[in-house]
Design a protein that fits this description.
This protein is of the alpha+beta class and 831 residues long. It contains 31 helices and 32 strands. The strands form 6 sheets. The protein has an 8-stranded mixed beta barrel, surrounded by 5 helices.
C-alpha cells in the first residue's frame, strides 16, 4: 500500500494535478486497491463504489470489437460535452480533438501503469474554458483492461474577446453617434468604450476619455476631416480603411484607421500605429528612387510594372509613362518571354544564376543579371527587381577569352589554341586517317624588319596571315605561333603526298611579292611537315618533329619544305648532346686557345697573333670550330665562351713582344649582349694589355643585322683605343657601304680567293680590287690561308701588306707560340 500523508501528495505523485477533490480521492482509492504494482485495481472494487455523485462525470472505455478504443458508456456531463449519446461508441465517431485527448491520456496511463491526466482548452460563446480528463486504468475479473474516465469542466472561464481587446497594441474604440437636435443629423461621436492602446494614442486614461465627445478627445480629427469622414461612413453604414495623422500634435504619428459601422448610430474603429512602417516605406522610396541601379516593382501575376526608378527609365530608354503602362515583355527579348513568369522573388526562382537578354527602347540587346525579392507594395504582393547590366563586362570577358586564344596582330589562332586544336584532332583520328602539322618560318624576316622598320614588319605579318587564310581548307586551322612563325593543322589525309602538295602550296602562296607601304616586298617561307600517326601521336612531339624538319630546310637555304624523317631527330639529338657537352666544357674550363701569326709580307716580321678557340672532346677528340661554334652561337653559349677566350688571350699577349698585337674574332651573336664593351674593358684591365695592342675582328654579318646598334658598339670599342678589322671581306653580302659606314683599321681577304691564286683570274681581280681599296683607304690588307711561295709572290705584287697561313706558321698552343717569337728573333740576329 502507498504511504503518502495526503490525497494531494498521492495524486501529485501520479502527475494528476486536479482542481477537484473527488479526483484526488479517486487517486487514493486507486492506489489502495492493489498490492502489486504490476496489477491494476479491479473495476468492480473501485468504480462501482464511486458512481454516486460522480456518475454524471464518469465514463468507461475499453477495447472495442474492431480492436480500437470505444466508450462503453458515459454520464450526462460527458455526453453534453461531446454533444452526443455515448453507448459503445468508437473514438473515431466523436470530435477528433476530444478523441485525441482521450487517446493520449489512455496511452500515458498504460505506459505509466498509473492514473494520467490531460487538460483540454475549449472555446464556446466567446469564453475560453478548461476541461480535465483523468484516466484510471482498471482490470476486470476476466483479466481485461478497461479505463475509467473522469471529465469535468473547470469553474474558471476567460472572456477571449475582452482579453484580445486588452492585449492588442492597436487602439480599439466604440463610438456612439451624437445627433444635432435641429438637423437630426450626426454631428459628433461619443466614446463608449476604448482599450489601453487607444488611450495611449489619445494621450489620456481610459476613464478620462470614456463618454467624451470625439471632437474634444481628438480636436485634430475635426480639423483634418477624419470626423466628417466617420460621420459619412456611419450614415451610409459602409466600412473603410484610410490613413490619418495621430490625434496628438506634440507626438506626430501615422495611423491606419479601420471603421466598421454597427447599426445606425454605433461605429467601431481600430487605430493601428504605422509610423515605423511609413518610415520604412520612405526609406525604401529613397533607396528605390535614388538608387543608381535600375530597379522596378511588378505584379507577379500580370507582370505589369507598378513602379520604376529613374535609373530604370534611363537604362531602358522608355518614358516613365510608357514604362508604367508596360509589362515585363517590353524589357526583354522575345526568346525570354516564356521564362518571365518565373521571376517571383522567392529563393530558387527563375531569376537566379543566369544572364537575361534585355532590350532597350532603341532595340539594342543588353545582357542583364537580375535580382528579385518578394515584397508588399501598396498592400499587395509584388516583386522588386534590381538590374545589373553586364553587357560590357561580358564583352570584355569575351575579348579576353578571344585574346587568350588568338594572335592580337593577325587575328589568327595563337599557339594555345593551335595546340588544343591539334590535340583534339589527334584524339579524333580514325584508324584509316592521318593529319599533318605544318611549321612555317619566314626567311630573312628580320632583315626586312630592320630595313623597313617594325610597323612595316607588322604589316607584312598581317599580309602573310591573309595569304595563308586564303589557302585554308574547311576544317583545318592556321595559327601564328609567335614572331614570324606560323602553323597549319591539315586533317583528313589519305596519303603523305597530300601533305607535301599542301606544303608546296604554302611555299607558293608566299613566294609572290607583297605590297607594303607602296613597295613590293618578297618574302619566302620554309615549311617543316610532320604526319600523325606515322611520326607521332601527341601534339607536342608532332610539332617538335615539324620544327626539326623546318630547321633542316633553313639549314639548306630555305624557300622550300621538307617532311620529317627519323634521321632528322637523330641529328637534333646529336646537336643537343653536343650543346650539353659545350656547357660542361665551359664549366670545367676545357677549351684551349691557339695562336696563328700574322706577318708583314715584305719583312716577314710578326705583327699580330690571331687567337683561335680549340676544343678537345673527352670521347670524340678534337672537334672543329666549324661544328661547335654555330651551336654555341645558337644556344647563347658563345657569349660566356667568348669572354673566357678574350680574357685568356689578353693575359697570354702580355708574354709577347710589346709591338705584337692580339687579334680576336667577335661573333655576331656576341653583339646581342649588352655587356660586350664592358667585357672587353674587364679583359684589358685584368691583363694589363694596352687597348692599342688589341684587334677585334668582325664579319660583314655584324653590320647586316641591327646595323645601327652594332655600329654604335663598334664606335664605343674604337673609342677605347681598340683596332677593328673586317674579316672575310669579299664573301657573302660584301658592300662598299660597310667600308664607308665605319673606319676599319684592317681588311682581311678570305682564304677562298687566296687559294686559287694566281691561276683563277676572277680571284686575281678580287684580290687586286681589295688591296686597291686598302691602299686608297690607307688601311692594312691581310691575306688569309697563304700556303705557297707562289701565292705570296702574287700578293706582294698586288700590294697586299700582311699574310696569315701555313706558309708561315700553323695555329700553335700558347707555349709554342712564345717559342716562335724567340726563333724569329734569333733569325733576325743571324741575318
Amino acid at each position: 500500500m502507498m504511504s503518502m500523508d495526503s490525497a494531494d501528495d498521492i495524486s501529485a505523485a501520479y502527475g494528476v494535478l486536479s482542481d477537484f477533490e473527488e479526483v484526488r480521492e479517486l487517486c487514493v482509492s486507486w492506489g489502495c486497491q492493489t498490492d502489486k504494482p504490476s496489477e491494476f485495481p479491479r473495476f468492480e472494487e473501485l468504480a462501482l463504489g464511486s458512481l454516486g455523485t460522480l456518475a454524471d462525470d464518469l465514463g468507461l472505455m475499453g477495447e472495442g470489437c474492431g480492436g480500437g478504443l470505444e466508450i462503453y458508456y458515459a454520464g450526462r456531463s460527458i455526453e453534453s460535452w461531446l454533444g452526443q449519446e455515448l453507448r459503445c461508441t468508437a473514438l473515431e465517431a466523436i470530435d477528433q480533438y476530444c478523441a485525441a485527448c482521450l487517446r493520449d491520456a489512455t496511452a500515458l496511463a498504460t505506459q505509466r501503469r498509473a492514473p494520467a491526466m490531460q487538460v483540454l482548452h475549449w472555446l464556446r460563446d466567446g469564453l475560453a474554458t478548461s476541461r480535465e480528463v483523468v484516466i484510471f486504468p482498471l482490470s476486470t475479473r476476466k483479466g481485461a483492461t478497461v479505463f475509467l474516465v473522469f471529465s469535468r469542466e473547470r469553474a474558471e472561464a476567460h472572456n477571449v474577446v475582452d482579453a484580445i481587446y486588452r492585449a492588442t497594441d492597436d487602439g480599439l474604440v466604440t463610438l456612439a453617434a451624437v445627433f444635432d437636435d435641429a438637423a437630426d443629423a450626426i454631428s459628433d461621436f461619443r466614446i463608449l468604450s476604448l482599450n489601453n492602446g487607444a488611450a495611449r494614442l489619445f494621450g489620456d486614461s481610459e476613464t478620462a476619455l470614456r463618454w467624451r465627445r470625439l471632437s474634444e478627445a481628438a480636436p485634430t480629427f475635426a480639423r483634418d476631416g477624419t470626423l466628417a469622414r466617420l460621420i459619412e461612413l456611419s450614415k451610409n453604414r459602409r466600412g473603410d480603411e484610410f490613413e490619418i495623422a495621430g490625434p496628438l500634435p506634440e507626438s506626430p504619428r501615422h495611423l491606419r484607421l479601420s471603421a466598421a459601422p454597427m447599426g445606425a448610430d454605433l461605429i467601431a474603429i481600430t487605430l493601428t500605429d504605422v509610423t515605423r512602417l511609413k518610415a520604412r516605406e520612405e526609406y525604401f522610396r529613397l533607396l528605390f528612387e535614388e538608387n543608381p541601379m535600375p530597379m522596378w516593382v511588378h505584379d507577379p501575376q500580370s507582370r505589369r510594372i507598378l513602379a520604376a526608378n529613374d535609373a530604370a527609365v534611363r537604362h531602358f530608354g522608355h518614358s516613365r509613362d510608357r514604362l508604367l503602362d508596360a509589362t515585363l515583355e517590353a524589357l526583354f527579348e522575345e526568346k525570354e518571354h516564356p521564362h518571365l513568369p518565373g521571376i517571383q522573388g522567392i529563393p530558387g526562382d527563375a531569376s537566379a544564376d543566369r544572364i537575361w537578354q534585355g532590350r532597350s527602347a532603341d532595340g539594342r540587346r543588353r545582357d542583364l543579371e537580375i535580382h528579385a525579392r518578394e515584397l508588399d507594395f501598396d498592400g499587395r504582393r509584388a516583386v522588386l527587381v534590381s538590374v545589373v547590366d553586364v553587357t560590357e563586362q561580358l564583352a570584355a570577358s569575351a575579348r579576353i577569352a578571344h585574346m587568350a586564344l588568338h594572335d592580337s596582330l593577325t587575328g589568327l589562332a595563337n599557339r594555345n589554341q593551335f595546340r588544343m586544336r591539334l590535340a583534339a584532332s589527334l584524339e579524333a583520328l580514325q584508324p584509316d586517317e592521318a593529319l599533318a602539322a605544318h611549321y612555317i618560318d619566314l626567311d630573312d624576316f628580320k632583315d626586312i624588319n630592320d630595313t623597313l622598320g617594325h610597323p612595316a614588319g607588322d604589316q607584312l605579318l598581317v599580309a602573310v596571315a591573309e595569304r595563308l587564310s586564303d589557302i585554308l581548307r574547311p576544317g583545318d586551322m592556321v595559327a601564328r605561333l609567335g614572331g614570324d612563325e606560323f602553323a597549319f593543322v591539315q586533317a583528313g589525309l589519305t596519303s603523305p603526298d597530300e601533305a607535301g602538295e599542301f606544303a608546296e602550296k604554302i611555299v607558293g602562296a608566299l613566294g609572290h611579292p607583297l605590297k607594303i607601304n607602296g613597295q613590293n616586298v618578297l618574302v619566302n617561307a620554309s615549311v617543316g611537315v610532320a604526319i600523325a600517326p606515322a611520326h607521332a601521336s601527341d601534339p607536342d612531339t608532332l610539332l617538335q618533329y615539324a620544327d626539326i624538319a623546318l630547321y633542316q630546310v633553313k639549314q639548306a637555304g630555305g624557300g622550300a619544305y621538307r617532311l620529317f624523317d627519323a634521321g632528322m631527330a637523330a641529328a637534333l639529338i646529336r646537336r643537343r648532346v653536343l650543346e650539353a657537352d659545350l656547357r660542361d666544357a665551359l664549366m670545367h674550363n676545357a677549351f684551349d686557345v691557339h695562336y696563328q701569326p700574322i706577318a708583314e709580307i715584305e719583312s716577314r716580321r710578326i705583327v699580330a697573333m690571331e687567337a683561335l678557340l680549340r676544343w678537345t672532346h673527352p670521347t670524340r677528340g678534337s672537334i672543329s670550330p666549324a661544328e661547335f661554334i654555330p651551336i654555341a652561337e645558337a644556344s647563347g653559349l658563345i657569349i660566356p665562351i667568348g669572354e673566357m677566350a678574350l680574357s685568356r688571350a689578353c693575359l697570354e699577349a702580355m708574354h709577347w713582344p710589346p709591338t705584337t698585337r692580339l687579334s680576336v674574332n667577335l661573333s655576331p651573336a656576341q653583339f646581342k649582349s649588352e655587356t660586350l664593351v664592358q667585357s672587353v674593358v674587364r679583359a684589358l684591365e685584368a691583363s694589363g694589355l694596352p687597348a692599342s695592342r688589341l684587334e677585334l675582328e668582325i664579319t660583314e654579318s655584324v653590320l647586316l643585322v641591327e646595323s645601327r646598334d652594332n655600329l654604335a658598339i663598334l664606335h664605343q670599342l674604337r673609342a677605347l683605343g681598340v683596332h677593328i678589322s673586317l674579316d672575310d671581306f669579299g664573301t657573302g653580302n660584301s658592300s662598299l657601304f660597310y667600308l664607308r659606314a665605319f673606319p676599319f683599321d684592317k681588311i682581311k681577304i678570305d682564304r677562298s680567293f687566296v687559294q686559287e691564286l694566281p691561276t683563277n683570274l676572277q680571284c686575281v681581280a678580287i684580290v687586286r680590287a681589295v688591296t686597291g681599296i686598302g691602299q686608297c683607304l690607307n688601311v692594312a690588307t691581310v691575306a688569309e690561308g697563304v700556303e705557297t711561295e707562289e701565292q705570296l709572290a702574287h700578293l706582294r705584287k698586288e700590294g697586299c701588306t700582311q699574310m696569315q697561313g701555313y706558309l708561315f706558321a700553323k695555329p700553335l698552343p700558347a707555349e709554342a707560340a712564345r717559342k716562335l717569337f724567340g726563333a724569329w728573333q734569333e733569325e733576325e740576329e743571324v741575318a
